[in-house]
Amino acid sequence: MKNILMIGTGGTIASRETSAGLSPSISPQDILSYIPQVESVCNVDTLQVCNLDSTNIQPYHWLLIARTIETHYEAYDGFVVCHGTDTLAYTAAALSYLIQNSAKPIVVTGAQKPIDRENTDARTNLLDSFIYASDEASQNVNILFDGKVIVGTRARKERAKSYNAFSSINFPYPARIQDGVLFRYFSETPLSEPVRFYHSLNDSICVLKLIPGVKPDLLQYLFSQYDCLIIESFGVGGIPETLLDIFYKEMKQWQQKGKIVVIATQVANEGSDMSVYEVGRKAKDDFGLIETYDMTLEATVTKLMWILSEPHTDYEKVRERFYHTVNHDTLFSQRRHAARRP
Question: Does 12 qualify as catalytic in the annotation?
């Protein structure tokens, strides 16, 4: 029987009602007591690293979770991280970059209702997570929620209250669990390289979501304050004419100083492609802009935090590492990047 470490971080799954609203207060050991069926699945130890509403999760906590897994990596066959749903997709993506090539499964799960409620998704999500973490073919970082397995770099919370809160963006579901039975839709290639842990993140990153009428002066401020600016553009990606003058002025100044600009899309599915329209192609060609293609925003943010944490990382190195696939985070960007690079 597999030995699994369950790591508690708080979240709705661990919450109780208070006069001020739901607040995490149930310990991992108490959470485990609500699924006695787990005794027939695996042996479980528990450990609490923090007890937070996931709105309060910061990059520091991602590093804490990763360090905890690294410390106990040799002692266990897999790991289940209990987490709040609001930033769960960010945490799963961050762990995908902080812990790479893990032959041991790292499963992130949570719930839309506390585990002590009569009608809750928590007990099913948690038990399913242990079933998946105990399977011989499971590896790397994945989310398990509402019976669906989602690659750690591909998840997005699309529903605020429903049990099917998370979707896989631009990538198929590898597997699902139904009535305690694991069904795999495709087989993962066994990992040949040893696991690698990383220990730093650079959080000097800002996301600018474009809206019609956004003020050009905002670009100047953001360029001066952050090492990396992710611009969430419209459709397949472009820079509005009202921003072009200030964008060109600021890019020429800040790109020479090592600042990074990445173009993303506000549209969840099918990805960006700045070469399609005039509003995108010229700016991309003039500055060799990095774009996200089919990556999620959660993966984009956390991948850049990981890349930029390395000292003396120049623009070409950032580009190269950004387009290198990690835990299925991108399908097409490396090929498109190579074909269209100016």
Answer: yes
